[in-house]
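User: Please fill in residues for this 141-position structure.
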């Protein structure tokens, strides 16, 4: 799933937000806090619809300031392993002249054992998540 939007800020200003995992609760949907930031690893604490906190571990696998950031969820030996084979997020920042920056977000998820309807539901949820992230970034500007 891929979503993009032009935001009225230069890439370096947006990178100050997206390039620092501590800022994820400010713009990424359902993230209430970030813990255990060590090197390229971090843990997101997510809020479920019922308010139950869920921890998910991630690792930054590519970083090229101020243009590209990609992180992967660590699913092996976690409760997420039952439904996810893999999950990664990519953030691209491309200058758009005086208009600002084109922010492109991509969420790639490989699911385990979901049929056609399950795949549709996952794509729909991914679209809402990426649109929410772009809304969050835009609100910070």
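Assistant: Residues filled in for all 141 positions:
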């Amino acid at each position: 799933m891929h979503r993009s939007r032009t935001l009225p800020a230069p890439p370096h200003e947006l990178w100050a937000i997206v390039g620092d995992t501590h800022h994820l609760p400010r713009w990424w949907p359902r993230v209430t806090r970030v813990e255990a930031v060590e090197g390229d690893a971090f843990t997101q604490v997510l809020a479920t619809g019922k308010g139950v906190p869920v921890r998910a571990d991630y690792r930054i696998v590519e970083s090229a300031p101020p243009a590209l950031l990609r992180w992967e969820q660590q699913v092996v030996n976690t409760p997420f392993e039952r439904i996810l084979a893999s999950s990664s997020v990519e953030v691209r920042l491309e200058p758009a002249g005086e208009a600002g920056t084109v922010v492109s977000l991509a969420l790639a998820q490989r699911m385990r054992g979901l049929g056609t309807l399950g795949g549709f539901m996952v794509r729909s949820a991914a679209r809402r998540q990426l649109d929410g992230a772009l809304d969050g970034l835009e609100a910070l500007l």
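For context: The first helix runs from residue 11 to 18.
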